[in-house]
């Protein structure tokens, strides 16, 4: 006796959830990102206003001066939801681990000049406190922002900043042969060294900003637009010429992460500016305000780490302004 097993295709009654289907069109299959993002923002039944901010509802569109017809226009071009995010970061971490193993296996830190090691401890390791501040700011953005399309991305970005801080800590410990006192010294530099005080003040002032989109512009657009290119691009180029190649290998995760994050950050600026002229005017005002603050903070650090500090910072500012203008602003 023989059995003839046949398969039949059963067409599902619908391809996705109703609220997603209403956005992408009937009969279309949604991506996992769309299903994990569209219309999951709570919008009703907020029984009590929060004690900490009673003039607003728990989730309130009016917590920023930016106005949007649809807050889900801020879709992440990377399409990060939990699974895609952790998969991408796991692959990047594997590469970073291989770089650290290569540096240690080839004894690259043994041949690094001592003055360069001390420079890195003085002017790179304190950035772990900057990254911690960026983590706090992005958690605030996730808490106060509106629309899961952008608040989800803020949560992922906040976790990335902790990762950056941990990599910087690891570099400091490697350079010092696991001497934890270098972490206390870096904290002292962050709190008391003259070169770090403009950036520290900018970060502490950002902690009390009320408008969450203004905080996004200050931290993720402007501050990062100066600090990361200065330390992890311009400075490391000069370190390579002086025998500090190992530093570039150990910060590869941070540089590749910054390039990737810039695509999402640029999109947020472009979408908000295109929505209405009032948004664009507000973004121009905020960017001009924080460019002045960030350029002064970057210059104070640049004077200690690059040969032509003013030229370097001006170059970084020109590139940032060109990038923002390309995304719809007039700076």
UniProtKB/TrEMBL annotation:
Species: Arcobacter roscoffensis
Protein name: Aromatic/alkene monooxygenase hydroxylase subunit beta
Example of a GO MF term: monooxygenase activity
InterPro entries the record matches: Ferritin-like_SF (IPR009078), MP_mOase_hydro (IPR012078), Phenol_Hydrox (IPR003430), RNR-like (IPR012348)
Gene3D superfamilies, sorted: Ribonucleotide Reductase, subunit A
Pfam families (UniProt xref): Phenol_Hydrox
Keyword vocabulary terms for this entry: Monooxygenase, Oxidoreductase
């Amino acid at each position: 006796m023989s059995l003839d097993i046949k398969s039949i295709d059963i067409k599902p009654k619908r391809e996705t959830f109703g609220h997603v289907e209403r956005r992408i069109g009937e009969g279309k299959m949604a991506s996992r990102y769309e299903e994990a993002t569209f219309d999951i923002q709570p919008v009703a039944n907020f029984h009590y206003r929060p004690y900490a901010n009673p003039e607003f509802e728990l989730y309130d569109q009016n917590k920023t001066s930016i106005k949007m017809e649809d807050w889900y226009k801020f879709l992440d071009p990377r399409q990060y939801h939990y699974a895609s995010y952790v998969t991408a970061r796991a692959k990047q971490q594997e590469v970073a681990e291989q770089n650290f193993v290569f540096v240690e296996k080839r004894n690259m830190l043994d041949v690094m000049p001592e003055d360069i090691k001390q420079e890195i401890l003085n002017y790179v390791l304190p950035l772990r406190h900057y990254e911690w501040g960026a983590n706090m700011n992005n958690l605030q953005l996730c808490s106060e922002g509106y629309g899961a399309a952008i608040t989800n991305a803020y949560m992922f970005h906040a976790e990335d900043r902790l990762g950056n801080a941990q990599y910087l800590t690891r570099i400091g410990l490697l350079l010092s042969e696991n001497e934890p006192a270098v972490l206390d010294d870096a904290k002292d530099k962050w709190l008391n060294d003259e070169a770090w005080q403009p950036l520290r003040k900018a970060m502490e002032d950002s902690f009390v900003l009320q408008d969450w989109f203004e905080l996004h512009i200050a931290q993720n657009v402007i501050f990062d637009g100066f600090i990361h290119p200065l330390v992890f691009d311009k400075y490391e180029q000069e370190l390579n010429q002086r025998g500090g190649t190992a530093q570039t290998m150990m910060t590869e995760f941070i540089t590749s992460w910054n390039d990737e994050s810039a695509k999402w950050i640029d999109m947020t600026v472009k979408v908000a500016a295109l929505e209405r002229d009032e948004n664009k005017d507000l973004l121009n005002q905020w960017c001009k305000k924080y460019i002045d603050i960030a350029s002064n903070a970057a210059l104070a650090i640049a004077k200690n780490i690059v040969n032509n500090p003013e030229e370097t910072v001006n170059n970084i500012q020109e590139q940032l302004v060109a990038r923002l203008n390309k995304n719809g602003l007039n700076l």
